Amino acid sequence: MTEPCLFPAYTIITMGESTLLGQIRLSKRKKAPFSEQVRYVTQFGAADPRASAPQFDPVAEAKLLLRATRWATLATLIPDKGQPFATLVNVATAPDGRPILLLSELAAHRRHLAADPRLSLLFYVPGQGDPLAHPRLTILGRAKRVDDSETRGALRARFLARHPKSELYADFPDFSFFLVGIENVHLNGGFARAASLGAEDIGTELDGAEEIVALETAAIAHIEADHPGVPGLLAQAFGAPAALDRSPAAGPWRAVGLDPEGVDLGNDESLVRVSFPHRVATAAELRQVLVDLAAEARRALHR
Question: Pick from 243, 223, 226: which is nearest to 235 by CA?
Fold first, then answer.
């Protein structure tokens, strides 16, 4: 018998204020008790009946885009002119959800941030049909270069897990890692689906979950060594169809990130976010939730 895999396959949403049209404001949103939470799937395959849920939950949609997007449009301000300057960058996330950037001081946008750390990031995954019909996430914040060696090492590991080819230049002397402090968030989920959110809405609380953060590297190494087929299995069962439409050159699926709210699966082309049914804070809780949900992932594929 195959040993249970180590991933969950649910997305849990806490519903806040809601409206059918127009914008909603969810900053300072109070989370409901677990028993009052609404389960809504945003990243499941079409075979899973929960994938057809019609609700729009802006917090879940924003978190999904933040965690499951490999690149973003970066806008900075040109010194003295104040004109916006947009470019494309690879992006990863820290355990608490803050974006991680790897930038060269030879790039114009890096020099702009040295003069003014304010920036905007647009997260968007193209899809079929009208581009404006697909969700996109705008983050306003400030970039801070990370000089502490321990913190840099942790961010480096998470970034290179998503972008392994960046290892070729990540340690060049002109490259540095930046952590983006989120100040404001705007989600456009398509026609009549928009929300203004706060950093606290899309961030992941780490207080009390230090054990999870500390064991991330070991947990991912265990999956790679003892369960190498599990990431692909879960991506196939629970990934959005667009994420699975890839070329053979994309390589195998692997675990690329772990935090108290979920696991990120990736290959060289796509990311899939698989969220936990509830926040986990200890290794025991993590193991239990993964084992409990692994069986459902296999049932979805009739294996």
Answer: 243
Give the residue carrying structure tokens 């699975």.
244
Structure tokens given for 96: 């608490």
Model pTM score: 0.80
Q: Could you give the CA distance from residue 204 to residue 263 in angstroms, rounded to a whole number? A: 13
Question: Rounded to an integer, what distance in angstroms lies between the CA atom of residue 64 and that of residue 69?
Answer: 8
Least confident of 20-29, 214-223, 230-239, 251-260: 20-29
User: What CA–CA distance (Å, rounded) separates 294 from 165?
Assistant: 30
CA Rg value for the chain? 19
Say yes or no to pLDDT of 140 above 70: yes
The domain spans of the chain are: 12-300
Tens digit of pLDDT for each residue in 149-178?
999 999 999 999 999 999 999 999 999 999
| DSSP letters spanning 59-123 | HHHHHHHHHS-SEEEEEEE-TTT--EEEEEEE-EE-TTS-EEEEEETTSHHHHHHHH--EEEEEE
Bridge partner list, 185: 139, 197
First to last CA, the chain: 11
Separation between Cα atoms, residue 24 and residue 16, nearest integer Å: 9
Query: For 12-300, which CATH class?
Result: mainly beta
Which two tokens mark 291?
A: 């084992």
Kindly report, residue by residue over 40-66, the tens digit of the pLDDT: 333 444 444 334 445 789 999 999 999
